Amino acid sequence: MANIEIGIRDEVRNVVYEFFSEECEVPRNELSNTTNVIKDLEGDSLMFLELLEIFKKKYKLNVELKTVGKYVVKHPAETIGAIIDMTMLIIEHENNIANLD
Predict the structure, then answer these.
(1) Domain range holding 83?
(2) Do 19 and 51 contact (CB within 8 A), yes or no?
(3) CATH value at residue 89
(4) Contact, 20 vs 80, CB < 8 A?
(5) I want to staple 21 with a disulfide (CB 3.0 to 4.6 A). Which of 10, 28, 36, 43 is the partner?
(6) Is residue 2 part of a domain?
(7) What are phi and psi for residue 36, nearest 5 degrees?
């Protein structure tokens, strides 16, 4: 389980916003926590997988895609804000995220 340090949420938020801004070719200032990745940005679920890989490397996370997939089925993240929240849970709980409810 990773140690959650002060400021890590801001760091995660910045990475997520930059990622979607670049991938979807949308100015960052047009994104918000309520931006729907699929409906508003025409994104797809593969983008979340790319983001997950970024965070796995950045924070040296021990989390399996299968485990995250089980969590996402029960708790879909459609907005940028929800993706940030889910990323924070993954960083904090890693593979134990599947046991959260």
Answers:
(1) 8-99
(2) yes
(3) 1.10.1200.10
(4) yes
(5) 28
(6) no
(7) -85, 120
Q: Which residue has the tokens 């990475």?
A: 15
Residue 91 has pLDDT above 90, yes or no: yes
> Residue 44: CB partners within 8 Å, gap ≥ 6?
38
Q: Cα(61)–Cα(59) distance, rounded to whole angstroms?
A: 5
Q: How many domains does the chain have?
A: 1
Give the contacts of 20 (CB within 8 A, at least 6 positions apart). Answer: 26, 31, 35, 37, 41, 43, 47, 80
- What distance in Å separates the CA atoms of residue 33 and residue 31, rounded to the nearest whole number? 7
Tokens 């929240």 sit at which residue?
A: 85
Structure pTM? 0.90
Output helix, strand, coil percentages for the chain, rounded to the nearest 5: 65, 0, 35
- Note whether 12 and 55 are within 8 A (CB): yes
Examine residue 75 and state whether it is found in any structural domain, yes or no. Answer: yes
